Amino acid sequence: MSDALALGEFEHIVLLAILRLGDRAYGVTIRAEMQERTGREPAPGALYTTLDRLEDKGLLTSRLGDPTPQRGGRAKRYVKVSAQGMEALNHARHCYLRLWEGLEFPGVAHA
After folding, report:
1. Measured between alpha carbons, how far is 62 from 72 in angstroms, rounded to an integer?
2. What value does the CA radius of gyration of the chain take, rounded to a whole number of Å?
3. Cβ contacts of 108 within 8 Å, gap of 6 or more
4. What is the SS3 assignment for 39?
């Protein structure tokens, strides 16, 4: 398996948040989505470092939007999961499902 396909938990969550957001995925919206869905609020530095690492691995692509006065003339960096990123997510999903298969937890209702 390629190292690019091996996702850490945080990388996995970031990629899933990006998928959920579609064309609206940039740092602020990704953090908000992660907090809403997981209860975790990552530090901005941790998120942006992870976005850079995922792009370096080829798991996402980025583009700059138009500069806005609200951001002091700075442009938003929008991100999108690449085909290789989708492959990594599908691989992780497959592995997790195989690990969960057949496990029983006494006293825990199944979803």
Report:
1. 20
2. 16
3. none
4. coil
**CA angle (60, 89, 105) in 5-degree steps:** 145
Residue type present at position 71: R
Altogether, the residues listed in the chain come to a count of 111
- Pairwise CA distance, residues 83 & 56, whole Å: 14
What's the pLDDT band for 2 if we cut at 50, 70, 90?
A: low
Cβ atoms < 10 Å from Cβ of 36: 11
Q: Which residues, at least 6 apart from 24, have a Cβ–Cβ distance to it below 8 Å?
A: none
Q: How far apart are CA 62 and CA 74, in angstroms?
A: 15
Angle made by CA atoms 20, 28, 17, in degrees to the nearest 5: 20
Helix axes 9-21, 83-100, angle to 10 degrees: 120
**What is the pTM (predicted TM-score) of this model?**
0.86
* Distance of alpha carbon 82 from alpha carbon 17, whole angstroms: 14
